[in-house]
């Protein structure tokens, strides 16, 4: 592993949420220039307090200076003072209907805006309800700060309402740093605020995600703060690979043909990756979360890997097996690779990721040259030092994902592939809306059939993969970008956890396209593929337009394929939350073969044939 790294800075501008990279070659990093650059761009969190400032107000001022614009959550008596301080600040407070929905929305708002987002909850169930969303935030690389209430010290152990302390909850996991939180602390006194502020600021300086938790006892929220002025630098810390590391990568790639495997962690390096691919002639594939970082219609693109992916990737690996694969910003987990042996190159991986814990883990027995770096910084360095005469070897006749051929049908319901074709033409090609796909068949249909030419327009969750993530996350995405965002979801997820009413309250232009087939169809189809019978996953038929209108939104039900375009155009034109309830043909087999093959491999006693 490369230990010869030097640091640079990626400055976060809290006013705009945009980022800019210091593009300095290693040979030009003089002390004068670096020190001058840092001194001109540092932002200090200067919190001048007075004896009348409470802990809650001091924390909110700290968050404002960290660039927080939004706080999502559900209120409660134990955190009334904190809620009040948030509500009377420059931070816009959105009151959700469930803490999990608030957390999923915070994830997507953070990723859409590149800002930290606050989640607030009360004691007891407020905290436990939010935990699935917190796990998802860690997995998705979001920056969120959970503010929760906890029971006052004098009331602990006395059966307080929704008592919250280490005696009544798994405190090691919830109230301390660890699996759930990169940093967590309970503030027992005002004097702990400066340390907490510095710890959070240090976490936000990281270019990858950061999840923090401040638990504030009810009585502490209103206590007064003595004056303090913490000096905190908000510039991001990047690792730049050394010349030796870049030289080694170029040497490995020059030994023979190679491919590039692009993941979500490369989303800010789209221009550099495209330039590098075109200079070298390398084939490019991407993870489901990496769709659009490299244009999917580009002649060097061979397809999406993993869940909902394309057979053209396996065709490429079988017919033109590369010597190496350059992995950029993906963990190569099950949803990206299914850990398939068919995805192993002849001489191994060059794996680049900002998180050292991700390097070489998914394929532990395959030779891997690890590089700890921000992908954009790495790609810039590779372009800088790549020899002008570098030729990877032109790859001819690369396989590509095949366009969908839709044949006439006698189906009385809407075929999912026809729906995706209309979404492509109306929502992807003719709007700038963010598209999110929910877990389940929505994920596989959208990932397999939609095509994107720009990064940061398609979002799926492949870590926790919780149902309800897209259904509620779309509210945060639409709010943060102040524009249209569309969720492709199943009826099961829509019933599990939606925030339509929240979107109505704040007039957020979110759109839900519901694949309504009256069952958990990924489960139904998967069980059939595995030859297992007897499981009941049916759902009584639901009218989601009626539900939407009952909450104050609008919608339209689609029962014929000929009505799809009109319905989608209405949804895009709507200025308020809108539901498109599509009656889906449940017999159409979703492109989930890879997932079911993976399950089959884990249950080797099953020997039932798998179909496309």
UniProtKB/TrEMBL annotation:
Query: What Gene Ontology cellular-component terms does the record carry?
Result: acetolactate synthase complex
Q: Does this entry carry the keyword Isomerase? A: no
**What domain of life is recorded for the organism?**
Bacteria
User: What sequence ranges are listed for the domain Thiamine pyrophosphate enzyme TPP-binding?
Assistant: 439-582
Instruction: Identify the keywords attached in UniProt to this record, alphabetized.
Output: Thiamine pyrophosphate
Q: Where is the Thiamine pyrophosphate enzyme N-terminal TPP-binding domain?
A: 54-168
Any matching Pfam family: TPP_enzyme_N
Q: Which InterPro entries match?
A: DHS-like_NAD/FAD-binding_dom, THDP-binding, Thiamin_PyroP_enz_cen_dom, Thiamin_PyroP_enz_TPP-bd_dom, TPP_enz, TPP_enzyme_TPP-bd
The transmembrane segments are none
Would you identify the family this protein belongs to, as annotated? Belongs to the TPP enzyme family.
Name of the protein described by the UniProt record: Thiamine pyrophosphate-binding protein
């Amino acid at each position: 592993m490369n230990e010869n790294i030097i640091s640079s800075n990626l400055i976060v501008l809290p006013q705009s949420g945009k980022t800019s990279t210091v593009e300095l070659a290693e040979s030009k990093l003089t002390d004068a220039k670096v020190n001058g650059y840092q001194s001109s761009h540092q932002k200090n969190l200067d919190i001048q307090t007075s004896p009348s400032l409470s802990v809650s107000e001091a924390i909110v001022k700290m968050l404002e200076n960290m660039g927080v614009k939004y706080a999502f959550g559900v209120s409660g008596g134990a955190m009334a003072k904190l809620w009040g301080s948030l509500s009377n600040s420059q931070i816009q407070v959105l009151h959700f209907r469930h803490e999990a929905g608030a957390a999923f929305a915070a994830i997507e708002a953070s990723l859409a805006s590149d800002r930290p987002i606050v989640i607030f909850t009360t004691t007891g169930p407020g905290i436990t309800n939010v935990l699935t969303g917190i796990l998802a935030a860690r997995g998705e690389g979001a920056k969120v700060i959970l503010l929760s209430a906890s029971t006052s010290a004098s009331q602990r152990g006395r059966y307080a309402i929704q008592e919250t302390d280490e005696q009544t909850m798994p405190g090691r996991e919830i109230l301390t740093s660890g699996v759930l939180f990169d940093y967590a602390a309970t503030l027992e006194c005002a004097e702990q605020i400066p340390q907490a502020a510095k710890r959070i600021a240090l976490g936000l300086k990281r270019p990858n995600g950061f999840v923090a938790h401040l638990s504030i006892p009810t009585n502490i929220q209103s206590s007064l703060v003595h004056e303090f002025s913490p000096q905190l630098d908000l510039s991001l810390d990047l690792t730049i690979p050394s010349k030796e590391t870049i030289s080694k990568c170029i040497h490995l790639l020059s030994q023979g043909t190679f491919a590039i495997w692009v993941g979500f962690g490369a989303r800010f390096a789209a221009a550099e990756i495209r330039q590098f691919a075109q200079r070298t002639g390398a084939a490019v594939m991407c993870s489901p979360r990496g769709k659009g970082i490299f244009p999917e219609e580009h002649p060097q693109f061979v397809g999406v890997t993993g869940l909902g992916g394309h057979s053209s990737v396996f065709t490429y690996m079988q017919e033109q097996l590369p010597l190496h694969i350059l992995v950029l910003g993906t963990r190569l987990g099950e949803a990206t690779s299914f850990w398939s042996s068919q995805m192993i190159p002849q001489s191994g991986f060059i794996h680049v990721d900002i998180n050292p814990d991700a390097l070489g883990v998914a394929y532990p027995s395959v030779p891997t040259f690890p590089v700890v770096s921000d992908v954009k910084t790495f790609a810039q360095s590779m372009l800088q030092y790549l020899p002008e005469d570098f030729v990877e070897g032109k790859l001819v006749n690369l396989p590509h994902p095949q366009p969908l051929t839709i044949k006439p049908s006698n189906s009385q319901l809407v075929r999912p592939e026809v729906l995706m074709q209309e979404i492509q033409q109306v929502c992807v090609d003719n709007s700038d809306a963010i598209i999110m796909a929910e877990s389940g068949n929505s994920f596989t249909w959208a990932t397999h059939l939609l095509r994107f030419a720009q990064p940061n327009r398609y979002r799926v969750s492949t870590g926790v993969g919780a149902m309800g993530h897209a259904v509620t996350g779309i509210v945060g995405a639409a709010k943060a970008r102040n524009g249209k965002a569309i969720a492709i979801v199943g009826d099961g997820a829509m019933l599990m956890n939606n925030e339509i009413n929240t979107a109505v309250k704040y007039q957020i232009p979110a759109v839900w396209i519901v694949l309504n087939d009256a069952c958990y169809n990924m489960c139904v189809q998967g069980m059939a593929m595995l030859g297992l019978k007897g499981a009941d996953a049916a759902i009584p038929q639901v009218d989601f337009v009626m539900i939407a209108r009952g909450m104050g939104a609008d919608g339209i039900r689609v029962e014929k394929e000929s009505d799809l375009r009109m319905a989608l155009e209405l949804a895009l034109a709507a200025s308020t939350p809108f539901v498109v309830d599509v009656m889906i043909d449940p017999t159409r087999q979703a492109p989930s073969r890879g997932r079911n093959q993976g399950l089959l491999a884990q249950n080797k006693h099953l020997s039932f044939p798998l179909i496309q």
